[in-house]
Design goal:
By secondary structure, the protein is α+β, with helices and mostly antiparallel strands. The chain has one domain. A 3-stranded antiparallel beta sheet has the order 2-1-3. A hairpin with a 2-residue loop joins strand 1 and strand 2. The protein starts with a helix and ends in a 16-residue tail after the last strand.
């Protein structure tokens, strides 16, 4: 399983608790862990590029009732 899929599966598993604690935020994910929450996808992307330069892929997911593939942002490569 690649990192994007691992991140997505981890996000889906945590979603019920995240909806209560961080609704509407954007979760930055790396290696199956949520490493931060941001107000916008752009803020999460900027943080991902800064935190993981040259490491490859990180993911961003919006904390909403149904996980959404955010296209480029779900598969962002730094």
């Amino acid at each position: 399983m690649d990192q994007v899929e691992r991140n997505y599966q981890a996000f889906k598993a945590k979603l019920p608790e995240l909806i209560k604690s961080n609704p509407g935020k954007f979760a930055l994910m790396h290696d199956g862990d949520i490493t931060g929450f941001y107000d916008t996808a752009r803020d999460a992307y900027t943080a991902g590029v800064s935190l993981y330069p040259g490491e490859g892929t990180f993911s961003i997911q919006e904390v909403v009732d149904t996980p959404v593939d955010l296209g480029f942002f779900s598969h962002a490569v730094s």
